Amino acid sequence: MTTPASFQAAAHFHPSTKSPLAHVNYTLWLLITALLAGLLWSGFNASVVIFCVIALPLLLPFAIAGALRLRRKQPFLSIDEQGIHSRWFKGKTKQYCWPQLSQLRLHSNQGIAVLELTRADGKKHSLPLNTLDQPGLQQLALLLQRRQDGTGITIDDQHSAGLAFMTRLQDEMPVLWVSGSLIALNIAIWLLTTHGGAGINSASPEQLLAWGGNATSEVQRGEWWRLLSATVLHSGFMHVAMNMLGLYSAGALAERLFGHRRFLLIYLGSGLVGSALSLHYAAQQAVSVGASGAVFGVTGALLLAIWRQRRDMPADLRKQHLYSLSLFIVYALLQGFGHHGIDNAAHIGGLLSGMALAALLPLRGSTPRSNNPRTLLAVLLTAISIIALTLSAAPARVDQKLRISNGIAMKQVGTNMDQALAQLKQDIAANKAGTLSDLALDDRNRSIHGPAMAHIARQWATIKMPAEDPRAPLLHDMQRMAQLLDEGLNMPSIYLPEQHKIVAADPQRMAVIQTELTALNQSVLDKAEKLKAAPAK
Question: What is the CATH number of domain 176-391?
Answer without folding.
Answer: 1.20.1540.10
